[in-house]
Amino acid sequence: xxxxxxxxxxxxxxxxxxxxxxxRKGAGEPLLLLHGIGHHLQAWHPVTDILxxxxxxIAVDLPGFGVSEPLPDGVPYDLGTVAxxxxxxxxxxxxxxxxxxxxxxxGLLALEMGRIGLARSVTALSxxxxxxxxxxxxxxxxxxAMRAGAKALPRPxxxxxxxxxxxxxxxxxxxxxxxxxxxxxxxxxxxxxxxDATGFEKTLAAGGSVRFTDDVPGLPVTIAWGTRDRLLLRxxxxxxxQTVPGARLVRLPDCGHVPMSDDPALVxxxxxxxxxxxxxxxxx
Length: 284
Known about the structure:
Layout: E1 3-9, E2 16-25, E3 29-34, H1 45-52, E4 55-60, H2 79-92, E5 99-103, H3 105-115, E6 121-125, H4 133-152, H5 155-162, H6 165-172, H7 184-196, H8 200-207, E7 221-226, H9 235-243, E8 248-252, H10 259-262, H11 264-283
Parallel strand pairs: 3-4, 3-5, 5-6, 6-7, 7-8
Antiparallel strand pairs: 1-2, 2-4
């Protein structure tokens, strides 16, 4: 069941109120799940139950995505604002320094939360921010084309397409290696989430100059990349490993850009192994 939490964030304009939607289940150490640009918290549904067997799992709709409200007028959608805002969200939910797992934009935010001391471990799945300028332009052009397609498609046509494997592939094949496995309902919902994302353009604009160039020392970090990622090419994982030399770099065979659906068991294991390694470090 989706709930909403209100909290105060620091911004260049001073304190502002934010309202974010989230789902929470399970028990154990807290684990925050962050989706990518244009997506919603349901991206994590294929793995949530597995993770909730060991963790207090909190999946959120980022501000301006899913059913979360956009950030207040004038508040930027940049790393320096959104990552601390997620820390304020956790505090409002009674959580301190959760494990954080994120995909794409969410992976970049997870790494930034780790860098500024807001996470106890980080799992980043195909994180943004390790691109060349050419790779960034390609990714942004692809995302804009997907957004335009989602806006142009009438809902009855979207629903018809979602009922066939070929249609689901046409709608979501850019981000999944196995798009035909997605349910028609999930494909419709995520296409509408992309169409209606109020924070899409501002997030994309803020990301134009983003490069993640700092190490994330002192905590377990895993960077994982799908071998069939067609949006952020897997060679970016090598750059990520060079930037965060202590990170574990994991290959996700036959997974696309959003791997949680392509191989839920593998993705869950990667996240859980990262979180478990925190206890190993503490014991050592």
